[in-house]
Structure formats: C-alpha cells, structure tokens
Amino acid sequence: MADTWSSADKFNREASQWDENPQRRAVALGVAQAIIVAINPDKTMHALEFGCGTGLVSMEIAPLVKTLSAIDTSREMLAVFHEKISTCGITNIETSCTNLSVSSETEFKEQRYELIYSSMTLHHIDDTAAFLNRLSELLSPGGIVALADLDLEDGLFHDDPLENVHHGFDRTELAALLHAAGLQVTSFETIYTFNKTNRAGISAAYPVFLVTATKTQSVTSE
Ligand SMILES: C[S@@+](CC[C@H](N)C(=O)[O-])C[C@H]1O[C@@H](n2cnc3c(N)ncnc32)[C@H](O)[C@@H]1O
Prior knowledge:
By secondary structure, the chain is of the alpha/beta class. It has a single domain (7-215), classed as Vaccinia Virus protein VP39 (Rossmann fold, 3-Layer(aba) Sandwich), CATH 3.40.50.150. Helices cover 29% and strands 28% of the residues. The chain is built from six helices and seven strands. Strands 3-2-1-4-5-7-6 form a seven-stranded mixed β-sheet. The model has no long low-confidence stretch (mean pLDDT 92).
C-alpha cells in the first residue's frame, strides 16, 4: 500500500461525526454481541482493542472484563472515546495513541492479554502477517483473538479511492496467516452485512466476519 495517505489524518477529520452514522453503530454493536457470545468475556480478563476509535465496541465489552487497553492511532477518535469514559465514570479502560504495527512501540512489550479484539481495523494495517505475529506475542497462553472485518470486497467499499487499505480478506488466507502466527481458529462467522451504495454508485452488500482464534504455541522470532 502507498505510504503517503495518512489513516490518522482521515480519522482525526471524521472523529466528531463518527458515531452519527447508524451503520457504524450497528456493526459495532453486532461485533460486540458476537464477541460476547463467542468468547464470554469475564472479570479475570485483561483485554486489548486495537483501532478502538470512539469506543463503540469497547463501551460494550469493558463492563465484562477486568481491564481494557484501548488503542488507536487517531488522537481525535480517542478524544471522543475519553469523553464517553469520563461521562460514564468508567474506571477500567486505559487508552493509548499507539500504532502496534510499528516495532519501535515499546509501551506494550511487557503486557500480556487474555483477549485481543478489533472491529474494521485489520484492513488498515499494511503487513497482516507481521501484525498477527505481534498480536500472538501479546496474548497470554490460551489467550483469544477476535477480529471482525470485511470479507474480500470489490475495492469499492471505501469512498476515497486513495484510501490505503486491504480490500477485505479471503477467509482461507486469513486462517492460514493466523495459523502461521500460532493461533488456532475456533470460529469464522458472518456477523453483519453492510448494505451501501459504493463509490461506483452501485448498491452492494459487504459482509463482515468475526474470526476467533486461540494461542496454541509461542512464536519464536528469528
Ligand atoms: C474503521 S475505524 C473503526 C473504529 C472502531 N473500531 C469502530 O468500529 O467504530 C478504524 C480505526 O482504526 C484506527 N487505526 C488505523 N490503523 C491503526 C493502527 N495501525 N493501530 C491502531 N489503530 C489504527 C483508526 O484510527 C480508526 O479509529
């Protein structure tokens, strides 16, 4: 993917209106409910969401877990989330403006999580294989990853043709990457479908999957 387009700039611009889009709220709620059903998060868990945005998913998950680290690369998305955290008096969420895919990020080196999840963020991360290895390192033994994202799409889902993203994921290929990262897939299901007019003006359906996988072995770095 080209490196001139800035994801942080885009989401900083969109943050104040993010929650006004009903499909965004609906997919986030669908993801949260699917994670709750698939994983049954509990109060022993330290959880991490990468690409938490304005916290639409994590506001549902936080009451169920012990602690929640919510990270994003957009300060403005996190500012909207902070507002909710403080309005609701939530005490178990810590936020961080961090790009986990950058190897120099040391903040999370010592942390381990029983649950790592995301919604509609994996397609923004360039090197999927390297990133899944990073997630695997951050999981405790037996820890679970739950990733919601678009199935392989026609390349027209995002309105801006310059947007620097993967055009969804092929399930078989993603399962193979998870396996290579030491993560055993436990479920792969369709949990939501975006019905939208894409940027070519065509009404189209874009399914969203949730894949869950458990850490089965440690990945040794070369
Ligand atoms: C499509 S939005 C989804 C936001 C939120 N999960 C939701 O469902 O409303 C993608 C989010 O991922 C964040 N993001 C993109 N690349 C990232 C990265 N490398 N690390 C962490 N967050 C990232 C963006 O800033 C944005 O908030």
